[in-house]
Every structure is written in C-alpha cells, then in structure tokens.
Amino acid sequence: MDFFEKAYHGTPPWDIGRAQREFVQLEESGDIRGSILDVGCGKGDNALFLADHGHEVWGLDSVPSVIGIARERAETRNLAATFLVHDSLQLASIGRTFDTVIDSGFFHTLSDPERPVYAENLHAVLRSEGSYFMLAFSELEPGGYGPRRVTQQEIREAFSSGWHINWIRPAVFESRTRPEGSRAWLSSITRI
What is the pTM of this model? Predict the structure, then answer.
C-alpha cells in the first residue's frame, strides 16, 4: 500500500471537503476554460466544483477507493464527471486532450526524475495553447511537516521546453490542519 492509499484510510490534511479557493477564483475569473483534467483529484472536490460550473471534467487519481468516492459524489449531485484510476505519470495513455489541466498538490509530490516525465505527459494531454494551473507548496513555507517545497526556479526548469510560463504568484494551499493555510505557488503555464 502506498503513501496515498494509507493517507485515505483516515482523512488526509489536504482533504478539505470543498474546492481549493485558488481554483474557485480561477474559475470565477474565467481563467479555467473548456474541458478540464484534474490530475491527482482525490475525492473530486475541485473537479466536482468545476463540473457544477458547466465544464466537462475528468479526474484522475491512483487510489481506487477515492475514485469510488468521487464517482459516488458526482452521482449524488447529478453531475457529469468522469473519474478514472490512472497513473499520473502516464497521462499520454488516456488518448485524448483537454483545454485546461489543474493540479492541486500533485507536482510537489514528484521526485526530480519524475518531473520531466510528468511535464512530457501533460504536454500530450493538453491542447496547443491550453492552460495548466498548478498549486504547489512554496519553499517559503517553513519545513517540518507536509510535502516537499518547490521553488519558482524548479517550476521554470520543469516547464522550460514546450511551455510558456505566464506567471507564478504567491498563493495559499488550504488544509484541515493549518487554518491559515500554507504558503504556495500558483502557476499559470501554457502549452506551446
């Protein structure tokens, strides 16, 4: 059993029971457009929020039990959303493309060798000129708990070829264990 399967035997800190505020604001501002892929979707809170706002949404996660929960939530709320158990380092095998990809805390779980694999797979599933929005813990957040921290330079290096970084701005990653949230980077990156 991997880390994420174990974490979902309880309620992990990132499972806040609603969409992350940063993605709500992106949808409200019109930055999130068209069909959406939510990578590492967990129980589907971000995906279901976006489906409720009229988007065609697919959510992927490697933990079968949380995909089951996401599917049940979609059915209960009468929302059309597709949830799949899938390896996020093999996105290319999905066989389709999306207008927007969102990532709420997945990138910061990747090892250095996994980052280029992920970027390459994202490139395969994002339409040309499509948008990738990533929320990841910032190196400005003190250590001692939670995931690996990410610097702006690491983001720029991971998306240096075939991508245009529109902006990287300070953000808050909400959690159940830190009422004030954690310092994060929210990145807007376009596939070219």
Answer: 0.92
Decide if 175 contacts 17 (C-beta within 8 A). Answer: no
Angle at 86 between CA 155 and CA 73, to 5 degrees: 100
Mind listing the pLDDT tens digit for each residue in 67-77? 999 999 999 99
Predicted local confidence at residue 112, as pLDDT: 95
Give the separation between CA 112 and CA 106, rounded to whole angstroms.
Answer: 13
CATH entry 3.40.50.150 includes domain 21-191: yes
Question: 3-state DSSP call for residue 42?
Answer: coil
Please give the structure tokens belonging to residue 37. 């892929």
Burial class (CB in 10 A: 0-12, 13-18, 19+), 160: exposed
Residues 6+ apart with CB under 8 A from 23: 32, 46, 49, 50, 102, 104, 133, 135
Measured distance CA(94)–CA(37) in Å, rounded: 11
